């Protein structure tokens, strides 16, 4: 096989791979992230990030209030980008639970001390048990839980004002 034919074959294979990757990225990105929609949030018992001797369970969800569960990690660059918006939501009175995922406990605690915490409580999911039962595939991920403990929405990726207004606000306002 000539050098030109080998090079052409390489480009064809590489082009096919890129095309498959592109199609995979564009096809229904939220479809894989619909686990537990309209189902009860799984039961759990996890330690608090800052106080590992204190364990919290699903009773942390407040009755008659929407709850935002934010899956994050100190090593997650995108989590850092959305952190300021989460602090704005906290200042607006939203009840936010942080679920620290696949992280070093000291790094996570330092991250919150340095950047401030938008969370009412921060759960430390050391073994990723809750994250696995939730179907978490990466960080950040935001899960909206209704007043009855039922998962109503999920978003994988940065939570921005635009995403908040289009995916979360309509559910909370009954639209």
Automatic annotation (TrEMBL):
Keywords: Cytochrome c-type biogenesis, Disulfide bond, Isomerase, Redox-active center
Limits of the Thioredoxin domain: 35-173
Membrane topology: Single-pass membrane protein
Pfam families, A to Z: Redoxin (PF08534)
Subcellular location per the Swiss-Prot or TrEMBL entry: Cell inner membrane
Gene3D superfamilies for this protein: Glutaredoxin
Coiled coil region boundaries: none
Entry keyword annotation includes Disulfide bond: yes
GO MF, one example: isomerase activity
GO CC list: outer membrane-bounded periplasmic space; plasma membrane
One Gene Ontology term from the biological process aspect of the record: cytochrome complex assembly
Recorded family membership: Belongs to the thioredoxin family. DsbE subfamily.
Protein name: Disulfide isomerase
